Amino acid sequence: MIARAPSPGPRGLLRRLREVMADAGSVDERLAKVVRSIAANMVAEVCSVYLLRNDELELYATEGLNPEAVHKTRLKVGEGLVGDIAAHARPLALADAQNHPQFAYKPETGEEIYHSLLGVPLQRDARVIGVLVVQNKTRTQYSEEEVEVLETIAMVLAEMVASGQLLGADDVAAVARAPSLPFRADGRTLSEGLAIGQAVLHEPRIHIEKTIADDIPLEKSRLDAAVASMRDHVNQMLEAPDNDIVGESRDVLETYKMFAHDTGWLHKLHVAVESGLTAEAAVLRVQGDTRHRMQAITDPYLRERLADLDDLANRLLLHLSGKSGKSAAENLPDNAILFARAMGPAELLDYDRRRLQGLVLEEGSSVSHVAIVARALGIPVIGGIGGVIARVEPGDQVVVDGDHAQIFVRPGPDVVRAFEQSLSLRQARLAKYAAQRDEPPLTRDGKRVALLVNAGLLIDLAHLDETNADGIGLYRTELQFLVRPTMPKAEAQQQIYRRVMEHAGDRPVVFRTLDVGGDKVLPYLAKHPEENPAMGWRAIRISLDRPALLKVQLRALLQAAEDRVLHVMFPMIAEVDEFRRARKLLDREVARLKALKKPVAREIKVGTMLEVPSLAWQLPALLPLVDFVSVGSNDLMQFLFATDRGNPRMMDRYDPLSPSLLSFLRWVVQQCKSHDKPLTLCGEMGGRPLEAMALIGLGFDRLSMPANAIGPVKEMLRSLDVLSLAEFLEGLYYLPDHSLRGRLEEYARENGVIV
Q1: What is the dihedral of CA 486, 490, 494, 496, to 10 degrees?
Q2: Which domains does the chain carry?
Q3: What is the set of active-site residues?
Q4: Residues 63 and 39 sit within 8 Å (Cβ to Cβ)
Q5: Which residues have C-beta within 8 Å of that of residue 382, sequence separation ≥ 6?
Q6: Who is most buried in 530, 565, 686, 741, counting CB within 10 A?
């Protein structure tokens, strides 16, 4: 294998490409000169350009292969090495290409004598429009620098192809035209709901007219001026009064401010300009590198930070083009369906919530910040639809079906009519739930069930009054920690907790202490790779090992609850000893504040989450020590069934209405009642009418759920006779069935229970 000499870099080649574009001659002659120049610069015997036309990669120009193969050799996307590069939108460097399992031999090209291959995708608007390839006869190990040089050239070529500088008008239309046919795509439901509207791109497509710099110092000055303008814009956003949303939006904007001053990112932009690119092309080049890195990173925090850089690059492009950094948000239609690769919560809050009807993400998970905010706002969200942005044009009609995790783009009239009917029925149901707001949550036989809401953001507080809920059964305090680059100080935490309690008034608020780890990573806490992070160093385990985090939070809660009753709950307790250690830290903070004569809660009620099954068998020892217990059904299910709830293959494998889980919960209910301790369920299970029906039949009289579930669950329980259901359940707990869902649905139908 032969080592390569250092690459001369792209600057000279970009200069040569500029000269080629200034030459007279046909577009075919220009493209032929381009591949010759690239081959010479890269010290390669072959350079070829394949462009995507009619769903096939067609050889458009080559230096080194048989010229007769031009416009004759075609590959399907995914076929051969070239097709593999296009399918995965990633570079491929091989010293022995012919022995690669993906290699596809095309005899008309005469490429059998070339052993090594380096290829990169041509991309525009995040869509692959072709592939650029160099080849050598010798088995050659291509360097990372050579890959970067070819990627830079590919980015420039993609812009030249799309602008018509290297192709005729007909070919440009064939290569770059957007699909116009209707299509349907499946993803993952991040927030339920249904919406019909017009497509809006979160990142407006900015087509740069010039990629190769004529005057590098001038481009540096333009870049610096745009960076300064962007920084000023972020500062103005931070300083602007925000009377509706306070903590979350500001925290993420502070993170943007930090990235806008990141010297490493700015250095990369300057290096790209010095290589011969215009300021706009330099931003595109660095942005492309960021997106490529995002694809290879599984760490959720690092992915979110790279997504922040991606968004920042787009804002910088808008400033270079002289447009507002929030143009997409400012020009929103009345029924907008927003499309984005990934988003942070503050970005979503930039948009007018009266006009934003739905959100579609190429990435995203149900526990991401933006999904949590969207659920709080009642916006349906579908995530995990890779490549969808390249297939959508602004203004396209879109249906977002959050209930079934699917979208329809440019749907036919029949599809639209069907979903309009569904939307009308949904709106009628919502109006009915609103009319029942003041009806008490009483069953037909007079049992009262407390209906509480789950919350974690200040924007959730409005739902307390909208739903007339009995309180907040779970306030996720960790969201305030996750959106900040540094740990929030006690004063900042105290302000947020006080505002939550003031809004709740006499209604209880159960504050869960910091529940991070697993897929929720704090930027200021050292992270160690774990094979099973969901069962690793997280929640109370972190708090007990790093007690300073918990002490500051407890201190803030105690002071915020001055003259009030404070409900504190510790997460992921696996044994009584962990609860006792956490309670000891709380007692010390109480004593400390009293000694300093500082305000403290009038009364303190301390509870625990029951998520780890081992704790259930210590309930007789635990219950005398606690004031209340809350079952976290989401984590409980994954631990009880040994199933990763984030694994798509396992998501529907086990049913919460299985005899085993219901038997387990029945045991918990019996233990809590025997010790006269309040018991709440605050997982997703409690917000589904059929599951909530089963829980009430088991003996639960407190359920905490998303705000939009209060109406359906209240309607169900007001049609339910609890004693009859409890008798029905008695004969089902020890059945060998996979699920009792069918039996419970039949019971509901026969007894007039609305589920």
Answers
A1: 0
A2: 2-176 (3.30.450.40), 183-424 (3.50.30.10), 471-632 (3.20.20.60)
A3: 369, 682
A4: yes
A5: 187, 188, 189, 190, 358, 359, 360, 361, 400, 401, 402, 405, 406, 407
A6: 686
